[in-house]
Amino acid sequence: MSxxxxxxxxxxxxxxxxxxxxxxxxxxxxxxxxxxxxxxxVVVSVxxxxxxxFPVWLGVGFGLGRSYAEADSVFRQAGxxxxxxxxxxxxxxxxxxxxxxxxxxxxxxxxxxLTCTTGDSVYKEDQDCLDLEDKxxxxxxxxxxxxxxxxxxxxxxxxxxxxxxxxxxxxxDYRAHVYTHEAGGLAxxxxxxxxxxxxxxxxxxxxxxxxxxxxxxxxxxHMAPTKVISxxxxxxxxxxxxxxxxxxxxxxxxxxxxxHCDGARLWNAAAETGxxxxxxxxxxxxxxxxxxxxxxxxxGSILVGSRKFIEKCNHFxxxxxxxxxQAGMLARMASIAIDxxxxxxxxxxxxxKDFGRFCQEQGIPLESPxxxxxxxxxxxxxxxxxxxxxLASKKYNVKTMGNRVAxxxxxxxxxxxxxxxxxxxxxKDSLVNxxxxxxxxxxxxxxxxxxxxxxxxMNAIAERKARN
Length: 468
Hints:
This protein is an alpha/beta fold. 48% of the residues lie in helices and 10% in strands. Helix 10 (242-254) links the parallel strand 4 and strand 5 (258-262).
């Protein structure tokens, strides 16, 4: 299948399992029809031709011919031959490594829209939306849930509902999505200061990190007291150990501090560790779960907590334009994604770990361990020119973005091998032409800025400065 054909259709191709089934059916039919043809030939020979062999072989030939025709028809319909070894459908996003948000809805999701409910969910009259909220609340061991437009919305209104009035602050990892990638929402919606913390271990927050940075009510009046601890799990693909979360949760309860989880990819942590969503979520006062990332729904996020908390969040949702009318079609697809795709998350984890091992074998440093579905290249140590990387990615027909490599269940093994070739080509170029950047580092880098220079360019700049 050509790349153009793949990009023109989101329709998954038949898997090897389907082809194997078709092969078995065709083979069985071939045996039966050949046998019937042989039998018919014998009967004709006995009755009409006095046991001459010619009609017998004519019957066998007829049976074989019919068998071949049927087998050929089966394989033409499948669009594949027995020699195919790919065990997963090939999606339009098979070569997409920028984000797991690029996954496309499956045919099952799209077909479900035809039978979804169409009530007004703002008035709590859309049954599919209500069913999704009830389903996720029970899955997480919470009283209620709220279907939201995005992870940013569910995080922001969840944190706002956990706060009372300023002055207050939220403590989180310095890389946390709620702090770095939600357009300053905590400052505008919650009027909250943020205490960004660099983990002492370099990977994830611990209770010791929190104790070192926590601001109590009776502390320095120049500072805003800590009222919420926000923990992202997974963060950069790193899984915070369950026992560490339990310690933080117990401390928060003892000190009347709200504990929120940005669980955009908590699904991945649960899939990797075997710890249930119920066990994870019961440690938090509130949890935001993204539906359009690794779990593969086309839209939405969901917030879980106590019934009173969710009622308050619904006010903030409405206030910020989050009311969705006929949400049933979106909720139905999200529900199917949870049912069908959770078991597939390990696929993306195995892809990421394989790619991480490849990087280590090639001497390409990584920022952090590969626990789940992300690999982060260490751009402080790897001087890859983003232009070269971009061109290499196009050459090998893969889509990349900066130092973050995101894997999902719709990736294909072939595209992962092409990704390795693209990165290796860019890395080898960096050994000859190292690339440097001045100023703040950029997490998602798809192109260079005016302050970025190769070593040759930096030497030329230095020479000009020396002359002046």
